Amino acid sequence: MEQIHESALTQMRKSVRKLGSSSEKYGDPTLMRFLIARSMDSEKAAKMFVQWQKWRAALVPDGFVPESEIREELETRKIYLQGLSKNGYPVMIVKACKHFPSKDHLQFKKFVAHLLDKTIASSFKGREIGNEKLIGILDLQQITFKNVDARGLITGFQFLQSYYPERLARCFILNMPGFFVSVWRMVSYFLEKATLEKIVIVSNEAERRDFIKEIGEEALPEEYGGRSNLIALQDVTLTPLED
């Protein structure tokens, strides 16, 4: 298996060069995410990797999205970053009742990149390895029709699929009201099979126990059966990376 991986990685790096780009700054764990997302097809993975590089250069030219560019999205305090799960994955919570469809879609895209980047970076131990994953929790408690944003949901999941391949470990959806089922059915149409397999709609007590068990009480706020407090995304300070 290792030889197959080595061969695929070598071929992918060659394909990236043929496409006029470079993968020298990136380690094997990063490239392997793209290979896995494209079923170990080196050429398809290389194409996806180069598209990701171009996307980063256009949307995140400085390597990060500063809070000053997404102030309106942050002001709602709808995203929470809760530390690490039992398996060492950072846990991000979205409170949908605090979200309203954005009139500035570019700012929303930058916000999604910011929250995913910061969530992933919160698990770095001195430096990025490249294969870190995250757990997302989408809480639909108390949402109304004003909070429904199918376009925003699709954007978030498409970012994960196209630009953060193999970063999603699991996504739990909590408290889904009946009227949202048709919305979710439409959103699901845009999701790849591999993404759908990582999504769990928690709808009964047994699933709720499994949800708490997988994440761990230390990272979960009390309202979800854990022992921690909610921590807003902008209140989390990341540890500087090693040089």
Briefly, what is this?
With 243 residues, this protein is of the alpha/beta class.
Explain this structure:
This is CRAL-TRIO domain-containing protein. Residues 67-232 form the CRAL-TRIO domain. It comes from Vitis rotundifolia (Muscadine grape). The protein is α/β, with parallel strands linked by helices. Helix content is 43%, strand content 12%. The chain has helices at residues 2-18, 28-37, 42-59, 71-75, 105-121, 150-163, 181-188, 193-196, 205-215; strands at residues 79-84, 90-95, 134-139, 168-174, 199-202. It has a 5-stranded mixed β-sheet, sandwiched between helices. α6 (150-163) packs parallel to α7. The model has no long low-confidence stretch (mean pLDDT 95).
Overall residue-averaged pLDDT value: 95
Q: Pick out the low-confidence regions.
A: none
Describe the strand arrangement of the main beta sheet, using strand numbers. Answer: 1-2-3-4-5
Number of helices: 9
Major sheet details: 5 strands, mixed
Report how far apart the termini are.
33 Å
Structural class: alpha/beta
Bin the helical content: 40-55%
Count all strands and give the number: 5
Alpha carbon gyration radius = 18 Å
User: In percent, how much strand structure appears in the residues?
Assistant: 5-15%
Shape: globular
Could you give the order of the helices and strands? HHHHEEHEHEHHEH
Domain CRAL-TRIO: 67-232
InterPro entries: CRAL-TRIO_dom, CRAL-TRIO_dom_sf, CRAL/TRIO_N_dom_sf
Protein name: CRAL-TRIO domain-containing protein
Pfam family, one: CRAL_TRIO
